[in-house]
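Q: Give me the 3D complex with FO1.
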Amino acid sequence: MNKTILSLSGGVGGAKLAHGLSRTVSPDYLVIVGNTGDDFQHLGLHISPDLDTIMYTLAGVADPERGWGMAAETWNFMEAISRFEGPAWFKLGDKDLATHVYRTQALKQGLGLAEVTRMLSRSFGIEHRVIPMSDDPLQTIIATDQGQLPFQDYFVRLGCRPRINTVEFRGSDRAHPHPDFVALLNSRELGAIILCPSNPFLSIDPILSLKKVRAGLQSAAAPVVAVSPIVGGKALKGPAAKIMEELKIPANNLSVAQHYRDFLDGLIIDSGDEHEAQVIEELGIKVKVTDTVMLSMQDRIDLAETCLEFALNVNPGVSPRPPGCGGHPG
Ligand code: FO1
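A: Here is the predicted complex, encoded as structure tokens.
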């Protein structure tokens, strides 16, 4: 396909598919947009966890067990900071630390997050384009039974234990999506939009909350397909299923389809969930049933190929896209 593929991704789960896409689509024809709602300032450093997870995964240096951070990491900095009773709940490995220091310094010098991400990507030997959803600040804030929590406090410090009431994307009314992202959404050169199997409520919704993005997806000439992060009623990684239950949304693929209903042409669900296909197709969304669990590099490539083939076969414009039915919060 000589058109550009746009993929939207959060952290670990999404980065695996982005990695598969990067092995399938040449650098000139793939743009990966990363969520920055998880970004925060920690120990004076600007941390962009999802961008780093995407970059480390594409570069083949991500820790294979954790999915985030770098492989063969050492933790001398964490040990040293713990001695001063510094905050040790968010683990910054020694090698990973260099990324945060470099980014923080470059931002302080006035560079935008996209430019810094481009420089970091190049240093890691990544040829594909990884861009932040926006250069502007946007903070995912979770309203819980323990009060309002910035994303990493909820996710890492409190281990997703608080019950979620609502999710807010603070700054989304002022934040502009990266210009290349908007241009691509409106481009005739766009071949497909692929939503990676990231948490719809915490990782994809921040991207959708930006001005013009949801409308851009609704009006895009290219097909929009998503890979569901829900398998057998559970999230493969992270708290998606727990959050859905707390938001009183059944933890299944139909809910994912309903959440993206206003712009989605096709949903890829796992082989074990085939029984859900019919009810999702009744929404006017095509379904592809395949193995979505990515354990090996070959799994990532296979799923990427399936996404591309499926995108070619779903017909945008056929799906009913009722205005304003974007699903539950976030
Ligand atoms: N996740 C954790 O569960 N614990 C950590 O200590 C942690 C540190 C960390 C450092 C750098 C980085 O890029 C990511 C890190 N993550 C950690 C992952 C991150 O919090 C989440 O996976 C994402 O924000 C959600 O996509």
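A quick observation: The pocket of FO1 is lined by residues 10-12, 38, 47, 49-50, 52-53, 68-69, 90-92, 96, 152, 155-156, 203 (CB under 6 Å).
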